[in-house]
Design goal:
The complex is a heterodimer of chains A (201) and B (468).
Chain A: E1 6-14, H1 21-24, H2 44-47, E2 70-73, H3 85-93, E3 97-100, H4 105-113, E4 117-120, H5 123-133, E5 140-144, E6 149-151, E7 157-159, H6 164-171, H7 176-181, H8 184-197
Parallel strand pairs in A: 1-2, 2-3, 3-4
Antiparallel strand pairs in A: 1-5, 5-6, 6-7
Chain B: H1 7-13, E1 16-19, E2 25-28, E3 31-34, H2 40-49, E4 59-61, H3 80-96, E5 99-100, H4 111-117, E6 126-129, E7 143-146, H5 149-158, E8 160-163, E9 167-174, H6 183-194, E10 202-207, H7 209-212, H8 216-224, E11 233-235, H9 240-246, H10 255-265, E12 278-283, E13 290-292, E14 300-302, H11 317-328, E15 343-346, H12 348-351, H13 354-364, E16 374-377, H14 382-390, H15 393-400, E17 403-404, E18 425-428, E19 443-446, H16 449-458
Parallel strand pairs in B: 3-4, 3-6, 4-5, 6-7, 9-10, 9-12, 10-11, 15-16, 15-18, 16-17, 18-19
Antiparallel strand pairs in B: 1-2, 2-8, 13-14
Helix pairs in contact in B: 2-5, 6-8, 13-15, 13-16
The chains are: A alpha/beta (201), B alpha/beta (468).
Bound molecules: iron/sulfur cluster (SF4).
Residues 64-65, 110, 112, 131, 133, 348-349, 409, 412-413, 430-431 of chain B line the site of iron/sulfur cluster.
Chain lengths: 201, 468
């Protein structure tokens, strides 16, 4: 998992509430053998028409937001099924941070497993960030995980809360596997002991 | 003197790398078995993070769920998604350097049959696979259980698993089995007695004279279905039969290593006075050939019985039984032996080993499959198939009217083209009779290979003892 420390990037405004996992990645894309490659189908039904042509009005199809790394969204982002394909699709597109007033629980946790930072802020703060995001590619928002702040392009900063352990894992790029790999010495020692005691394994 | 320990306690203790104050352990994994369905995202995860497989020499991959079992397998896999999954396993096995048995290797087969056959599964080991029937390997006195895809990636990367210890449960089968009664009847009867949640939160140790008297094949059948009983894993203490089965297998220890291993394996038993949280005892003499009538593996009855009345159950089971009878197209009071069968499936990781084929052949010898039935035998591995051919069993099956297939999971879960049609009724030697398990609308009756062979001859469910 990639570390998340500080990110300055373009934020796409998605004022819609209840953006669910079916919108994020429709079910026909779940029969994959990969976690990667889902980015092209992120928000598939909002992004493309029935013939597969881009819908120009959709925010991620607009030139200013094609390389967005942040999404500023309405309430209850990520509701619906538990599919980990949703964060996989966001990540594959290049989104590393989603800001909203609230997130669905499972989606929220799935984000951390995949190096995405979901930030919960009060309505007024989200409104101001939404306005800032609407300014396009020149208005870059800065997210500082160490300091736990989000800063608009005009330099206005908002502080956010985060579970210290989740913060630690994200700052260091640690998933479960990463955490276990921190114990590599213990595993090495165990293997050494085992090679002596049970060499046939 | 340390406190007396169970077999499970001993294997667990020998694999704890580190323990947290809350009891969460990092457990070392000795063998990791991999198949094509639950592994692609795990390998992909390794690629994304630039990680390696920590112990490729302890990792064994084989495609089984999606592979065609028809004789023209070499033509390749028609279904695109199945083909892509198998191709992904080919590539992952090659790229990460793990042990691999590709589709057209004679050693290919169902992962839980290949592991023991090749000597990868040894007593006292921890064995995992992204598949619930990993419990099979417990027959060797190995702690073996299924894991999810994220855990598959965790084991690939670290050769460990984050685990909390389960409770100890003892299932004792006293005395000897009557003629015509097999390991499958034991394991189904245990589930019938305890329910599918009876083992939840526990690791079962099967013991008693009837278990001791089983061959290794039979013991694998028993442990295979520990999962249907809700248990995390099933275990049987290794003994001379185990050692004899293991000796000389390609990946079993040799020479001085064998002697050292044997000395250790002989310490793998439950100490006198060790504590079990739950104990279930069945008398071997009381076990009859059984079949399932419903859509849960706990819906078990002796073949001499009748379809139950849902009103005779209590609680939520009343509704479940009604629904099951409706799905199965059965009426309360109907004699089980009156139920006509359309299809026979002999195979799977429960009953796809050589002993199972021998048991079926013993019944089928010189007999014919009832007109109009579809009957197939799918050996558990290419080597089981070869062995059966060497013994001439294939001729018995083909003469009787069975299709003699190549190895794979096949109609156990119908991920390949071997499927039931809606309403089609199957006598199956596999392990799950869930709705739709063998194909949408398909009706499954679980039983032993001998019982399935008997049904093939008569065209309805039959007490095999009448044909013996
Ligand atoms: S034979 Fe059936 S139960 Fe066994 S691994 Fe294959 S699909 Fe699973």
């Amino acid at each position: 998992m990639d570390k998340f420390t500080k990110l300055t990037g373009v934020a796409a405004p998605m004022p819609l509430v209840n953006i669910d996992t079916d919108m994020i990645i429709p079910k026909q894309f779940l029969k994959t053998i990969a976690r990667t490659g889902l980015g092209k189908n992120l928000f598939d039904e909002m992004r493309y028409d029935a013939d597969g042509n881009e819908i120009p009005d959709f925010v991620l199809n607009q030139p200013a937001y094609r390389n967005a790394e942040i999404i500023v969204a309405g309430d209850n982002f990520g509701c619906g099924s538990s599919r980990e394909h949703a964060p996989w699709a966001l990540l594959d597109f290049g989104i590393r941070c989603v800001i909203s007033t609230s997130f669905a629980d499972i989606f929220y946790n799935n984000c951390f497993k995949n190096g995405i930072l979901p930030i919960v802020l009060p309505q007024e703060a989200v409104d101001e960030l939404m306005d800032d995001a609407r300014k396009g590619a020149n208005a870059r928002i800065t997210v500082d995980l160490e300091e736990q702040t989000v800063t608009t392009s005009d330099g206005k900063a908002f502080a956010f809360d985060l579970d210290p352990f989740k913060k630690h894992c994200l700052l260091n790029g640690l998933d479960d596997i990463g955490l276990t790999l921190e114990k590599a010495t213990a595993i090495d020692t165990f293997e050494g002991k085992m090679a002596a005691q049970r060499p046939w394994i | 003197m340390s406190a007396p320990r169970t077999l499970y306690d001993k294997i667990w203790d020998d694999h704890v790398v580190q323990q947290d104050p809350d009891g969460t352990c990092l457990l070392y994994i000795d063998r990791h078995l991999v198949h094509e369905v639950t592994s692609p995202q795990a390998f992909e995860g390794l690629r994304m993070t630039g990680r390696k497989v920590r112990a490729p020499e302890k990792t064994i991959a084989v495609p089984d769920h999606n592979v065609p079992t028809t004789l023209d397998r070499e033509k390749g896999i028609e279904n695109e998604e199945s083909r892509i999954q198998v191709e992904a396993l080919d590539k992952n096995a090659r790229d990460f350097g793990v042990n691999y048995y590709p589709v057209n290797d004679v050693r290919q087969g169902i992962v839980h049959i290949v592991g023991p056959e090749q000597g990868w599964t040894l007593p006292g080991m921890t064995v995992v696979c992204g598949d619930s029937h990993t419990a099979t390997h417990g027959a060797f006195g190995a702690l073996a259980h299924g894991i999810g895809t994220s855990e598959v990636e965790h084991v690939l990367a670290t050769q460990t698993l984050i685990q909390k210890k389960s409770k100890n449960m003892k299932v004792e089968i006293t005395g000897s089995l009557p003629p015509g009664v097999t390991a499958k009847d034991i394991t189904l009867s245990v589930i019938g007695a305890t329910g599918t949640a009876g083992g939840t939160g526990h690791v079962i140790e099967y013991c008693g004279q009837a278990i001791r008297e089983l061959s290794m094949e039979g013991r694998m059948t028993v442990c295979n279905m520990a999962i249907e009983g809700g248990a995390r894993a099933g275990l049987i203490a290794p003994d001379e039969k185990t050692f004899e089965y293991v000796m000389g297998r390609p990946h079993a220890p040799k020479g001085a290593a064998w002697e050292a291993a044997l000395a250790y394996w002989k310490t793998l038993f439950t100490d006198e006075g060790a504590h079990f949280d739950k104990v279930v005892t069945l008398r071997g003499e009381d076990i009859a050939p059984v079949v399932t009538w419903g859509t849960s593996p706990e819906d078990v009855l002796p073949i001499t019985g009748v379809v139950p009345n849902p009103e005779d159950f209590s609680g939520g089971k009343v509704e479940a039984a009604k629904r099951a009878l409706d799905y199965m197209g059965l009426k309360p009071g109907q004699k089980l032996t009156d139920i006509a069968i359309d299809t026979i499936f002999i195979g799977s990781c429960t009953n796809g080993r050589i002993e199972d084929l021998r048991a079926a052949a013993a019944i089928l010898k010189g007999k014919k499959v009832k007109d109009g039935m579809r009957a197939m035998i799918v050996p558990g591995s290419g080597l089981v198939r070869a062995q059966a051919e060497e013994e001439g069993l294939d001729k018995i099956f083909i003469d009787a009217g069975f299709e003699w297939r190549l190895a794979g999971c096949s109609m156990c879960l119908a991920m390949n083209p071997d499927q039931l049609s809606p309403g089609e009724r199957c006598a199956a030697t596999s392990n799950r009779n869930f709705e739709g398990r063998q194909g949408r609308g398909g009706r499954t009756h679980l039983m032993s290979p001998a019982m399935a062979a008997a049904a093939a001859i008569t065209g309805h469910m039959t007490d095999v003892r009448e044909l013996m």
